[in-house]
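lol ok so funny story. i was supposed to be doing the assay writeup but got distracted and ended up predicting the structure for this chain instead. priorities right. anyway since i did it might as well share w the group, maybe its usefull for someone
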Amino acid sequence: MVSTDIASGSVCINEFTADKQVKLFSALREQQFSGQIKLKYVGGLEWVFYLFWGRLVYATGGEHAVRRWRRYVSRYCPDISLEPSILTFTLSQCTKDLPKKCWEYQLLSYWHQKGKIDQKQAAQVISSVMVEVLFDVTQVSKVHYEVHSDNILSSQLVLINAEQVIQKSEKLWKSWKEAKLADRSPNLAPIIKSPTELQKRAPSNIYQTFSKLLDGQQTFRDLGNRLNRDVLAVTQSFLPYIQSGLISLTDIPDLASPVVSKTRLQQEQGPQAPLIACVDDSPAVCKSMETILGKFGYRVVSIQDPLRAIATLLARKPDLIFLDLVMPNTNGYEICGNLRRLPGFRDTPIIILTGNDGVVDRIRAKMVGASAFLSKPVEISVVLELVKKQLSQK
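and the output, tada:
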């Protein structure tokens, strides 16, 4: 039985089949419910569906929420960078005045607002995520659901009738069962159990392919996305080798969320975050570096007067210095050379900033003791990777 009383608190459902899913979401639509419905599995998993006036807005949670979201964004929004540091920075920008609720959806909304993805792309990601969530929910034996009418998303990119995604999920689930895979989750990762034996028994081309693909870090769904093939077809291609014991299946963790908490920053950066100086006569460049680095827990000091740069650096003793190459009255070469003659700055990473990325400039920068070279305009991911690399070497 599925209760249709949305105010009834936690309700248990055995085998949350497609028919029961339709009944539950139809009841919510009849009552034009807006809010969350949470499905909890006794094994510790939890899925969340967001609704607006009884129609689905988004779904998340489960075993691999981050992997799932990244797969569909990479498939339908190929121009979006999924580099972790860029996602974290973008999220900090789009949630300045909002709580970090359902970060996956907030990023999609932000990209749509900025014109980076269109309505069709957003709908494809959201619909695919919902279908996969419902598939995973169907695989568990029992769930408890509860509703919360005071917790809705701030925007509605698309409104989807639950019956549409339930029908797609049910079709996939039937195919999965007919292939005798009901006892295996597509969230499992195949890994070669016996490489020597597999090499003996499998054709050489198949062995080479398996050796490249099966690193134990990709689920069947990840492999399907990578190969641009249906997950069922991919799983079936491995099935004979799984049944013969040459390939085993393993659980793997989800990918890291781009949401950075203060606690996580403290753990990563330590009790005293590194101090980074930016010496550049451009207020815009200094502000950009402050924003990028500050969001990731670094302390930043900006110096726009090049004639006072050395005095300020001596007083603040930064852990790393970004130094503009072309400035009025002096230049980055002179300042870098003078700093390297001071005992306190002989080992301090100094990264030259320039809009002219020429070979001569790079050679000259190395000659005066520069640690690295960074072209302007700066890219978030490049800045963060360079800072991490230079600080770790120091």
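Confidence is low (pLDDT under 50) at residues 1-7, 262-269. The longest strand covers residues 35-41.
back to the writeup now i swear
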